[in-house]
Amino acid sequence: MRIYKFFRTAHKWTGIVLALMFVTTASTGFLLLVKKKMDWIQPPTREDKAGEIADCISTQQLFEVVLAQRHPDFQSLEDIDRVDFRPGKRVFKVRSVHHYSELQVGAVTGEVLNSAKRRSDFLEEIHDGSFLGEWAHGYLMPLTACALVFLTFSGLWLWIEPIIRQRMRLKKRAGPGEVAEVECMDAR
C-alpha cells in the first residue's frame, strides 16, 4: 500500500509541475510538424531558373548579394548564421543570427527571391528549451523527458496495482478448493 500511495502522490505532483512544459512541447511539436504547410511558420522555398551547377554563383558572390541588400539583419558576415543550398530548386537560404530572418537567393541568377522571418526556428527553440538558455536545453529538457517516462510507468502502476490487489483479495476469500472457480471468474 505504501508503494501505491508514493506513486499516486509523486505522479500527481510531477504531472502538476510539468503540465505546462508538456503542453508547450506538444503544441510547438505540432506546429513544427505542419510548418511546411503554413507559410507564416516557415517561408516556402522559392525556385530559381533552370541551370547547371557550373552556372551557380560562388559563395563570394552570394555574400556580396546578401550584404548589398542593406537588410538590418545582414550587415556583415558575422550576422550570417548559416547557408543552406537546395540544388533541386537552385536556391541558397541564408539565415541571420538576428530576429530569425532569412533571405532566399537564386543560385543561378543571384537575385533575392524572398525575404522573410523563419518562425519555425523560434518554435524549435521553445520546443527544445534553448529559448530559456543553454541550461534549460542541457538539463531541464532531459529532466522533463525522464519525468515523462516516470509518469508513464507510475500511471501504469496506478492502473494495474488495484486490479492485482482485487484479484489477490478474491483468491484469499475463495479457499483452496474454490481457486479454480475464482480463476474462471477472472477470465470473464
Counting structural domains, the number is: 2
Report the major sheet. 4 strands, antiparallel
End-to-end Cα distance, whole Å, is: 27 Å
Helical percentage = 40-55%
Strands in their spatial order, largest beta sheet:
1-2-3-4
Content-based structural category: alpha+beta
Number of helices, where a helix is a run of at least 4 consecutive DSSP H or I residues: 5
- Give the overall form: elongated
List keywords for this structure.
188 residues, alpha+beta, Nuclear Transport Factor 2, Chain: A, 2 domains, 5 helices
Write the layout of secondary structure elements.
Layout: H1 2-33, H2 59-68, E1 80-86, E2 91-96, E3 101-106, E4 112-117, H3 119-128, H4 134-173, H5 179-187
Antiparallel strand pairs: 1-2, 2-3, 3-4
Helix pairs in contact: 1-3, 1-4
Structure description:
Strand 2 (91-96) and strand 3 (101-106) form a beta hairpin. The mean pLDDT is 91. With 188 residues, this protein is an alpha+beta fold. The two termini are 27 Å apart. The longest helix is centred in the C-terminal third of the chain and has 40 residues, at 134-173. It has a 4-stranded antiparallel beta sheet, with helices on one face. The chain has 5 helices and 4 strands, in the order H-H-E-E-E-E-H-H-H. It has helices at 2-33, 59-68, 119-128, 134-173, 179-187, and strands spanning 80-86, 91-96, 101-106, 112-117. Helix 1 (2-33) packs antiparallel against helix 3 (119-128) and helix 1 (2-33) crosses helix 4. It has 2 domains: 2-32 and 127-187, no CATH class; 43-117, Nuclear Transport Factor 2, Chain: A. Helix content is 54%, strand content 13%.
